[in-house]
Amino acid sequence: MGHSPELTVTITGSGCPIPDANRAGPGVLVRHGDVALQFDAGRSTVQRLAASGLRPGEVTAVFITHHHCDHTVGLPDLVLTRWVMDRFDALEPLPIVAPVGPSVRFAERMLDVWADDITVRLGHTGRSRRPHRMVVGFEARPHMTEVWSYAEVVVTAVAVHHEPVAPAVAYRVDTPSGSVAISGDTIVCDEMAELARGVDVLVYEAMRFEPIEALPEDRRFILDYHADTRLIGVQAADLGVATLVLTHLIPAPDTDAQRAGFVADIRSGGYRGEVVVADDLDVITVAGKDADARIIRQ
Question: The domain 7-296 is classified under which CATH number: 1.10.1510.10, 3.40.47.10, 3.30.1050.10, 3.60.15.10?
Fold first, then answer.
């Protein structure tokens, strides 16, 4: 009997809306065999996919957590680059899975501003097919709902709390080799606990509240809808997750001491498993359901 392929989780972007020379916009690539699933597509996603050895045409599907621009600005780039490289119009439409509402509307309209460029390329190359994608909308619900499957890979979603942005969802990927949950943007909430229970790898957006609380009052609004690292530690400890990956890092750590601050917050919540304060292109590999994650730092 053959072995199942490895499950790998690659951080294609660990940043946030604030530009950072070393951190692309939010994104997570989950691979299981030939299945390559991209979750969110922030700035420089195409470049990070290239660095991970994946061409745009090899992406199986894209999943959007919510419509904030830092999570979606790289999506038109991915779709257009995929089309430009598909010189023989051989690729099937790219599935873009998103909660019904602004995220679906964005996926449907995002190429409108590129109409002139698309028309010129069609005429110049003699190609007959415009960039094509298949937008798959689903209702965001407070309990886990299956939203996509292919072969042995199943993706479920749950509505999370990133108000006033709504809907926002988190995703879970289950494979024969293991499972991973991806929070998107959210506060720590019961819905995340339901989604992440039993996973091998939990990828969580992470904000250190203490430095933000020291900012001027008019900049503290971001505390309303992001995940407090201390509460992430409490939840991850309760769930017993083996590997916790922190991404969408606010404030982005530049020094070992700043990284240690993220870890200390997590530990203060009681979590004792593996903590990864992510850099772009970090790879977490799960070789089997009972295997510990192996972390490869680029």
Answer: 3.60.15.10
pLDDT of residue 43: 98
The full set of domain ranges for the chain reads 7-296
Q: Find all residues with CB under 8 Å of 171, minimum gap 6, and list them.
A: 39, 63, 65, 147, 155, 156, 157, 181, 182, 184, 195
Q: pTM, whole model, 2 decimals?
A: 0.95
The whole-chain average pLDDT of the chain stands at 93
Known active-site residue 282: no
- 10 Å CB burial of residue 112 (0-12, 13-18, 19+) is exposed
Query: Which of 20, 34, 40, 70 is an active site residue?
Result: 70
Phi, psi of 91 (to 5 degrees): -80, 145
Q: Are 42 and 70 in contact (CB under 8 A)?
A: yes
pLDDT digits (tens, 9 = 90+) for 218-260: 777 878 889 999 999 999 999 999 999 999 999 999 999 999 9
Q: Are 266 and 234 in contact (CB under 8 A)?
A: no
Q: According to the 3-state scheme, what is the secondary structure of 243-269? A: EEEEEEEECCCCCHHHHHHHHHHHHHC
CA distances for 120 relative to 93, 117, 223, 226, 290, angstroms: 21, 5, 45, 42, 53
